[in-house]
Amino acid sequence: MLNRRLLRSKVVQALYAIIIAEESNRQLAYDEIAEAYKPDLNSMEPQNLPQLERYRQLATKLFDELVEKGEFTLTDEIPHSVEITAKKAFAAYRNANKRDRQNSVKRVLAETENIYTNVIYSLRFLTDLAHSARLERNRTHHNVDDPIPLRSGLDSNIIIKALENDKKLADEAVRRAVSWADDIDIVQRTYREVLRKDSAYRAYCEKVEHTLEEDQELIQNIFRTMVFKSQLFIDFMEARDLYWEDHKDLVRSLCIKTLKSATAEGQITLAELTDDWEDDKYFVEELVAKTLAEEERFEGYLKEILQNWDNERLAKVDMLIIKAALAEMMYFPGIPVKVTINEFIETAKRYSTLQSGKFVNGLLDTLSERMMKEKLIRKSGKGLIDNQ
Description:
- By secondary structure, this protein is an all-alpha fold.
- The chain has 15 helices and no strands.
- It has helices spanning 4-36, 49-69, 80-138, 158-165, 167-175, 184-195, 199-206, 212-227, 231-240, 244-260, 277-293, 295-305, 316-331, 337-351, 356-373.
């Protein structure tokens, strides 16, 4: 089941994408200003290069003031055309930032939903493996040099039959365009080179009938050791999911839960990604929005505490993690402060430097105490649980 720790990592990923995009947009604004004051090489009139450079510098300065303060101070020495150039660059910068903020959140939410597509791919991999077994068992002529028992096979396994007959799995595969048809060689190689040679599978194929427990044992073994640890399968998943390393444990868990739900009557229940996707979406969207809205306040706190630190030594990811944690403390009253701190420490350990866990822990302890004294953190419900 999708958990908040993974959602918090998505928040940090979105925030990181946003600051990188804003840095790029700022550079594009500088380029736009520079373009406005490039000498006209086609003009027959003499170009006043020192003046053009001076105007470029003035426009850049005005633009920076707009970014930092939201306004600038005009003097008599600033021509109206320079003011207009700076305002145009700032408007383009602001609009690009707005689009990038929206797109970054949409992207991480799409990546999160894509986890379930990975689940469908994984389950369909099993049914396609079974299809390879069915084809071999139905052949008139068999490989006499490398025979395999054919009294039963993966295709006769009750869990596989339940997957093949499950309407929800079929509907999700269609809706998400999940198919191994274009990569069928991965399935076939896994069958020929791994499954077919497995001693436990060959012993299974010796018997005509099996208990549900035997069928379940076979499927779990195939899924855990032959599919999820297959380099062919891993390479495919890494190619389609940039964050497969982060998502694989959840995909594996949901698949195993689905497989274990199979009954002797051939029914199976497809495990859900989440109990409430709308609530999960809200958590990500709101936490990103509140972190950005309170960024100035949080920057001020950090500057006070870290005034003797070299900013170059501070990892961007650490700063984002701390800001997101502070926003969660302020705007999610049902989450205890201690839970927030512990969860973001784990996020720092996974996504930042080796020392980030201790660094984030120390700062969040200090800042949370200050914010509680200032009554910026008010907890209710589960959030009132003792945080000590």
